[in-house]
Amino acid sequence: MHTKIIKIDSADIDNKSMTEAAELIRAGELVAFPTETVYGLGADALNPGASRRIYEAKGRPSDNPLIVHIAKFQDLEAIAREVPRQAKLLADAFWPGPLTMIVWKNDSVPRETTGGMDTVAVRMPNHPVALGLIAASGCLIAAPSANTSGRPSPTEAAHVAADMDGRIPMILDGGAVGIGIESTIIDLTEEVPMVLRPGYITTEMLSVVLGQEVQLDPGIIAADSERKPKAPGMKYRHYAPRADLTLVEGAESEVIREINRRVCAARRAGQKTGVIATEETKGRYLADCVVSIGARHDEDAIARQLYRILREFDDTDVDVIYSESFAASGVGQAIMNRLLKAAGHRVLTV
Ligand code: TXA
Ligand code: MG
User: Fold this and answer.
1) 3-class DSSP state for residue 287?
2) CA torsion through residues 150, 38, 217, 60, sign
3) Residue 234 domain-assigned?
4) Could you tell me the residue range of the domain that residue 256 belongs to?
5) Running DSSP on this structure, what letter comes out for residue 188?
6) Which residues does ligand 1 sit against, CB inside 6 Å?
7) Residue 130 has pLDDT above 80, yes or no
8) Of the four, 42, 148, 192, 194, which is 20 to 30 A from 67 by CA?
9) What is the CATH number for 170?
10) How far is it, in rounded angstroms, from Cα 269 to Cα 263?
11) Per residue in 70-86, pLDDT tens?
C-alpha cells in the first residue's frame, strides 16, 4: 500500500486534504493525524472492521482497548451508558485537552474498539487537525498512538512514517506535537476516580477540580508487576529502546560520577555508550553519544523531547544508555512513568 503523507497547516487547514482524509475514515480506512499529545492512528470508532485494521497495522494485542476521540461533549453522551457527574466537571476544566475518561459504554460502541471491555475511553483532543478530521468525517475516531506496538509514541509525522509506511493509506503531517507524552487517563467507573496513566494533567489538578480524592493505580507504580495495571496497555513494556536503558538517581555530582564510571567500564568492554543528560550536565559526560533532554526545571520541554530522543537512540549503534532521573511530582510523574517503563524499571540509586 502506498502511504500518502500530506502536510497540513494547523492555522490554515486545507479543505481538500481534510475531505480526502475524512472520506478514508468513512470508508473504514486508517488515517494518522496529529493531536496535542502524540500522533494518533485513526479509524471510525463505531465500525468494528475499521477498529480491527488498527490492531493489524500496529501489531497491537487485541485485548488492549482504543481511545475514542470526540469533538463535542454530546458525543460522550452518545456512547456512554451514563455520564458520571465527574465527567462534566472534568470536561469543563480540561476538554479539549490531554485527558481521557473511562466510562461505561453503551451498545453503540463495538467490543472490537474496547478490546472486549464494557467500558470505553473517551477524549476530546485539543488540536485543530484532529478536531477537523472528526468533524469532517462525521465519525467518532478511535485512535491509539500511531507507533508500531512496543515502540515510543510518535511526536512527529516522520516517526509515524518510520513505523507505518506501506501499512496505512494516509498520514496528516501537522508538524511536531506540543506535549509529547500521551494523555492522562482517569477511570470514572469506580467509587473513587483513579488515574490509570499519568500525563500532562496531573493527579493534583484532577483532584482540585473534582473536589475529592483521586487515586493513582498502584499497578503502574509497582516495579515487580505483582499488581496488574487496570489499563491493559500499561502492562506491556512500552517505549523500550533497542539499547539497554538504566536510570540513575541521586545527587547530581554522584549521578554524573556513577554514570561516567559505568560508561568507561562499558567502553572498555567494547560497547557504545549513550547518556540522557540535561542542559546543565551535558558537558560533563564521557559517553559516545550524549543528548540533552532539556533544562532540568523545564518539565514541558523534557516531556516534549523524551520519545524523539528514545527513537533517535534506536537509529544509532549505542548498546547501553544511562539516563538521569527526574522528580516524580507534577508532570514529572508522567515523565518518570514513561522513562521507568522504557528502562524496564532498571534504576540505580547512588
Ligand atoms: O494522548 C493519547 O491518549 C493518545 C492520542 C493519540 O490521543 N492516544 C493513546 O492511545 O495514547 P493508546 O492506545 O496508545 O493508549 C491508550 C491506553 C492504553 O493503555 C489502553 O489500555 C488504555 O488507554 N485504555 C483504553 N480503553 C480503556 C478502558 N476501557 N479501560 C482501561 N484502559 C483503557
Ligand atoms: Mg500507545
Assistant:
1) coil
2) negative
3) no
4) 244-349
5) -
6) 35, 37-38, 40, 64-67, 100, 102, 114, 117, 119-121, 123, 125, 143-145, 182-183, 185, 196, 230-234
7) yes
8) 192
9) 3.90.870.10
10) 10
11) 999 999 999 999 999 99
